[in-house]
């Protein structure tokens, strides 16, 4: 059985939709697409979908980019260039290049595939796996591909179980006992529930498996339809559901719990609060997502850095970190960290105190600063003595503050302080 799944994965091409802006992350996506946003101390969000594909045995991958793609493309070039063309492996970066219509960029998720059909056909895959590039999870896609083939489905849709009251923000599926999808509705006010459990619903993960030739025909027909929005969730999947050819694949059947995980882990880190919490949660004694497990590695571009360093050992000026993650190249100089996650090259200076801080690469915190429950963007220089997290009204005036009290701090915000 293992060999069968591996063989199916080898015949599959993964196509990652990574053009999303991620506007709910506010200023964090002013200069980068959501899939390129940093996560977990070393990685980017897109590394999870790509690592899942590679770890599942899929070695032909396309990544469709569009919105502010420079940092994403640079990351892919630096960290994902290990494929060997002579083994029919490869990762193609596919910016919106107006190959079909010179007046349009990608008009929808389906169109982002349609515009690159000639490239996809060049790989000769038997199956196509469509992936979203902006979620945090570990999944062995070969199980989903195996189910797709064994059921003879026209499309297999990856889905997660969510409480019914939370399902209205997703595309939701109503299924029967065989996992056949009976209805597929986008963001419904009254979501359909699971068979035998009227408290939970099945929400789409934005992951789809198709037979390649069948998908080519679908997309070519969709491109000719002037009424279509050229979107998988709005057009393609509902049409297949209506024909009776769509099946659901619950995430629990293929999620990878390779370390300390107690239950399937999937997160959309599309808001400032969700992004902060998912990062800070990694500092827990037993985190819900174990990124230390080595049997399902999260591949990424890893900068060459010196080890992290903690210096000074005086009362009130002691370099220390408790329940925190500190990446290479960081210098914690006479400052105190509690439940913090520091990315590469962060420097914190003497007498500063950080609590619940996610500091992106090469941020710097000045002397006697006090920062609580905040995200510090890449390269931001926090001035000496700055206090964040004590006065909600002042914080909201100076920074991007959420209703839950999380502050996003960018360099332009710091510059306006005068």
Automatic annotation (TrEMBL):
Residues reported to bind alpha-D-glucose 1-phosphate: 106, 171, 186-187, 204
Family matches, as Gene3D superfamilies: Hexapeptide repeat proteins (2.160.10.10), Spore Coat Polysaccharide Biosynthesis Protein SpsA, Chain A (3.90.550.10)
InterPro entries tied to this protein: ADP-Glc_PPase, ADP_Glu_pyroP_CS, GlgC_bac, GlmU/GlgC-like_hexapep, NTP_transferase_dom, Nucleotide-diphossugar_trans, Trimer_LpxA-like_sf
Enzyme class (EC, first level): transferase
EC identifiers of the protein: 2.7.7.27
Keyword set, alphabetical order: ATP-binding, Carbohydrate metabolism, Glycogen biosynthesis, Glycogen metabolism, Nucleotide-binding, Nucleotidyltransferase, Transferase
Pfam families: Hexapep_GlmU, NTP_transferase
PROSITE patterns: ADP_GLC_PYROPHOSPH_2, ADP_GLC_PYROPHOSPH_3
Keyword flag Coiled coil: no
Function: Involved in the biosynthesis of ADP-glucose, a building block required for the elongation reactions to produce glycogen. Catalyzes the reaction between ATP and alpha-D-glucose 1-phosphate (G1P) to produce pyrophosphate and ADP-Glc.
Family label: Belongs to the bacterial/plant glucose-1-phosphate adenylyltransferase family.
Name of this chain's protein: Glucose-1-phosphate adenylyltransferase
Gene responsible for this protein: glgC
